[in-house]
Amino acid sequence: MRAQSRRLELLGFAVIVLFVIGAFTPIASFVATSLGVTPQIAPGDAIVGLAAGRVSSHGTLSDASLRRAVHGVDLLLNGYAPLLVFSGNGPDDSRVARRARRTLRGADAGDPHLFGSQDDRRRSGAGEDPAVGARGPNDPAGHRRRAHAPRGVGVQARRVTVLPAPVNEAEWDLEPHGRLSLLHRTARELAALLYYRAAGYL
Amino acid sequence: MSGLITVLILGVVGLTSVGFYLLGGHVLGLSPRQLRGAVRVMLECVGTIVVFSIVNLVVGAALIVGIRLVSGHFVSMYLLEDETW
Questions:
Q1: Is the dihedral angle over the CA atoms A137, A140, A141, A147 positive or is it negative?
Q2: Which of A138, A189, A142 is nearest to A161 (CA)?
Q3: What are the residues facing A84 on neighbouring strands?
């Protein structure tokens, strides 16, 4: 019993030390930078903007989702891909789902489009950012193929090459709250990476 | 600006901590040994909270995997990311 109390005390002490180090030193930025992916921005078949947080009941995107969306639009306007796809659910995604099914039926009939889904987050890395270049490794240039298909529409996903285009660059001049928030996000992404590897998605 | 906030937080927290230590010792007649015991209990409570949080997350993840397997519907693990856990 005494040993158990001692272990709990040590655990509590370690958590408080981690909290103080996380809040008052730039360790969160170091860890986030070391875990971050290197941008590989190049022309591709589609830009996939992955969701990061829920859409509010008023239809407002989370901060991270908004930044990814803007980055995706920026890449689209710069001509990196002819199509921009966003993943995730909105407050009313029924119209989107109907449109996706309709388009994918058209794709099966020879009008290929690229579509993302919620599964993009787990299939294309640690839930990060717009990805450019969803192209099959042996595809001739300009030949489009589906990157990821929404579940339940009868289309199987094929192997594609994903080029990361991260927008969440680690910041160094953060306030304590910002550091703790970055540490939390980094820990979440690290847990997601470990889960993806364990589940065989990566 | 972030340096100023850090100094302000640490300064205020340090000031109130030392102030109440002196208050407890000189006005309330508490001994430093009692403080040591209180800190140990506090650390034990924090450790217990961490253990329960981890157990809750593991059970939550198991539930999500179970729902996926039983219902066949995809339920995101991101439901576990709320800080309230």
A1: negative
A2: A138
A3: A47
| Contact (Cβ atoms closer than 8 angstroms) between residue A80 and residue A44 | yes
The ipTM assigned to this model is 0.85
CA nearest A46: which of A128, A157, A104, A132?
A132
**DSSP letter string, A77-144:** HTTS-S-EEE-S--TT-HHHHHHHHHHHHHHHTT-------TTHHHHSSSS-S-EEEEE-TTPPTT--
Burial of A182 (0-12, 13-18, 19+ CB in 10 A): buried
Q: Which amino acid appears at position B70 of this protein? A: V
Per-residue pLDDT of chain A (202 residues; tens, 9 = 90+): 788 899 999 999 999 999 999 999 999 988 888 888 888 899 999 999 888 777 777 778 888 888 889 999 999 999 999 999 988 765 556 666 677 677 767 655 554 444 433 344 333 333 445 655 444 333 333 333 334 333 334 445 567 788 888 886 667 778 899 899 889 888 888 888 888 888 888 7
The model's pTM: 0.66
With contacts defined as CB-CB under 8 Å, which chain A residues touch B6?
24, 175-176
Residues of chain B found within 8 Å of residue A175, distances taken between Cβ atoms: 1-2, 5-6
For helices A2-24 and B32-71, give the axis angle rounded to 10 degrees.
80
Sign of CA dihedral A156, A161, A166, A170: positive
- Write phi, then psi, for A134 (nearest 5 degrees): -75, 85
Contact A12 B44 (CB under 8 A): yes
